[in-house]
């Protein structure tokens, strides 16, 4: 089917449908209705129907969607079935936690290697190689990598970002708590855990004050 | 000083300043100017000055801010110096990666224990306990925990969220790719890595198509 323009809010809900559909046991019914999906996820039926219409040809009236087909359609739409190779820069604690997290493969992400200005080991516990940052250029050229994950301290992030772009990276997943300046053809997705923690912590402080 | 209302965009930049200030070597100058900070982080001087004015008494003209004091003020403002105890629900791969990440202490987060519906071990490699979910209530009561981290599959997230709230949790860090319904006094901070990956992957697909 033709690919429609999709809003970010739909994009945010799709992984939830997918996760639910995949979690159903082997012997589940072949078809699933929008109503059943809506009920299971505590969402509105109309919204579920509209969201699914964005990514797959409508379900059959009174029967619903072919479950396996729906899983395929959403996965394909989200790009989870195209494996994307990525490299990670900054093999500190967060970088190593991400390298060690085996769950990204399900989302089509394959972290090939990590780079660090001062690698403390040649590879991670899981056997992923950690190279010196000076090897970035030759590695990117040899492996045609398009995605980079930044897990260096904030003050080094812009410099690392520029190095990635210079070596052909087009999409950057930024875990450093800082803004990155990039040309318009480069996408930066920020994952600011420090900010999240600050927001949560502020909320708790306010709650504790209220109680007093 | 009196606490001012602060915008989310300022809140997003503060961890960047803090990370830079902390990274300066031991023997660095006692004072640092807004200009120096702005240059180091590639930001506008006026913005840096305004941001810092929100969290600390202004620096001295032509001299700047007392570095150690600035670190203290930002940390205190962000709540990083109040350690917050948290529990984590869902000791799968992502949960274990977070449990194993030693970097949260710097942000004032202390994960006491993990809970799972089917714990595969009694503790993590790092020695954090993993309990059966049935022990949640007694643990929360005994430890007065206010923050919960959700790393279960999407379809179980709402139920887990309700259990946390029933046990006194006021702030939830949600890593499950789904929306959570909560009362107005509960704060949910979503960290949707699956969505981030989908956004990045879509950008790459579009770039690859353009090239063809």
Structure, explained:
Two copies of one chain form a homodimer. Chain A is of the alpha/beta class and 212 residues long. Chain A folds into two domains: 8-78, Arc Repressor Mutant, subunit A (Orthogonal Bundle); 84-196, Rossmann fold (3-Layer(aba) Sandwich). Helices cover 45% and strands 16% of the residues of chain A. In chain A, the strands form two sheets. A six-stranded parallel sheet of chain A has the order 5-4-3-6-7-8, with helices on one face. In chain A, strands 1-2 form a two-stranded antiparallel sheet. In chain A, α1 (8-23) packs across α4 and α2 crosses α3 (45-55). Chain A starts with 7 loop residues before the first helix and ends with a helix. The interface between A and B is large, with 67 and 67 residues.
CATH superfamily of the largest domain in chain A: NAD(P)-binding Rossmann-like Domain
Strands of the widest sheet of chain A, in order across it, are 5-4-3-6-7-8
Number of domains of chain A: 2
- What is the N-to-C order of secondary-structure elements of chain A (H for helix, E for strand)? HEHHEHEHEEHEHEEH
Low-confidence stretches of chain A: none
Strand tally of chain A, please? Answer: 8
Q: In whole angstroms, how far apart are the ends of chain A?
A: 59 Å
Question: How much is the radius of gyration of chain A in Å?
Answer: 21 Å
What structural class results from the helix and strand content of chain A?
alpha/beta
Number of helices of chain A: 8
The third-level CATH topology of the largest domain in chain A is Rossmann fold
Which bin fits the share of residues in helices of chain A? 40-55%
Fraction in beta strands of chain A: 15-25%
User: Which overall shape of chain A is indicated by the principal axes computed on the Cα atoms?
Assistant: globular
Q: How can the largest sheet of chain A be summarized? A: 6 strands, parallel
Oligomer: homodimer
Mind telling me which CATH architecture of the largest domain in chain A this is?
Answer: 3-Layer(aba) Sandwich
The CATH class of the largest domain in chain A is identified as Alpha Beta
